[in-house]
Amino acid sequence: MRTLRRTPRGQSSVELALGLTVFVTVVMVGIHFAEVGYLSLKVHQAAVSPLWDSTALRVHRMRGQQDDIGDFGTFDAIAPRVMANARERYRDFDGRSSTPGSRAQISQVFTRLDELDVRCAREDELAFDLPRSRLPAMRSPRAGDWGTFPPDQDVGSPTDSVLDGVYQNEGGIRCAAEAHLEGLPTLPTTFLEGEGGFFEEKHSVLLDIRACAAGRPVGGRCQGSYGILLGDFGFADTEVSGHCPLQPERPDMPCPENRAFYYAAKKVFDNTGRAAGHAASDFAEAFVGFSPIDESAFFMSYRGEEDDYIELDTPRGESQDERDRPRNTGGVDHKPTARRRSSNECFLGLKGC
């Protein structure tokens, strides 16, 4: 009995050829899309990097003068400085090195990125919500809601701030970046297309767009950007780190070693209307006949930790305060190494001590 055998027709080879045609096309386009996403991140990095750099720069400092204590003169230079630095560092689209490469583009297998442009400018719409009101404005509690101000309470205008003359809103900066993104000729634009071809649609179109750090281009230009609010502590300089010994007999007299810190604190005290009441003075007058100080006067004392400062000359009776003694500045339990200037006033104005 004879067994019939079919003649080989190459079906597997045909299936392999057709499958590879589709597979290679998908792989090529997938690589191209991955490169577009990867290169677009480089533009994003170029826009965000100067924002973080700006947080390391000085926004303001304090000056030892009675008015306009806050000096914000360096703020306007922040945006141009970080913008110039980002343009130089990311000129080759690689900010990992402080020395940029010589090339002004980056090319992958099917995609190229070039013509980077980084823009940074001051942004006034970014602002701190500073505490407002010139006078002490106490809210009356209201269940389940924000408290309300008493009738006829002067709460100041929306432009007032207790920090006027010391700190002010300078806003922040905003940065944007864009670059030219294009497809390379290595990505075929025609392949088994046209009449009788395997693919009925055009194989690919060479990409030529603007890559934006944020959002999509509008009218050929990138409109999106990133912003950051700037502000720092202005009390980190040597001119605000000096000692300020207590001068109870000379209120409103600045200490010579730390005038900037003194005037900054005093300005806020003045903007809030100074003392809100005279309860302490009334208490002293009721018990000993008079108040040793003007409650509306300004007193400030500052001693750094390195001074190991403890007040030895404490008021009589303070050391016997068993409840608050651990928090007092003097007393029998303290072993101070520094002494302050003696005061000629006694506790609550008591005489003969």
Element layout with pairings:
Layout: H1 11-54, E1 61-62, E2 70-71, H2 78-89, E3 105-107, E4 111-123, E5 140-142, E6 145-148, E7 172-183, E8 208-212, E9 217-218, E10 221-222, E11 226-229, H3 259-271, H4 279-288
Antiparallel strand pairs: 1-2, 3-4, 4-7, 5-6, 7-8, 7-11, 9-10
Quickly describe the structure.
This protein has about 350 residues and is α+β, with helices and mostly antiparallel strands. It is built from 4 helices and 11 strands.
Describe the structure.
The protein has 353 residues and is α+β, with helices and mostly antiparallel strands. Helix content is 22%, strand content 15%. The chain contains four helices and eleven strands. The strands form four sheets. Strands 3, 4, 7, 8 and 11 form a five-stranded antiparallel beta sheet that branches. A two-stranded antiparallel sheet has the order 1-2. Strand 9 and strand 10 (221-222) form a beta hairpin. It is elongated. The termini are far apart.
List key phrases describing it.
single chain; five-stranded antiparallel β-sheet; two-stranded antiparallel ribbon; 4 helices; 22% helix
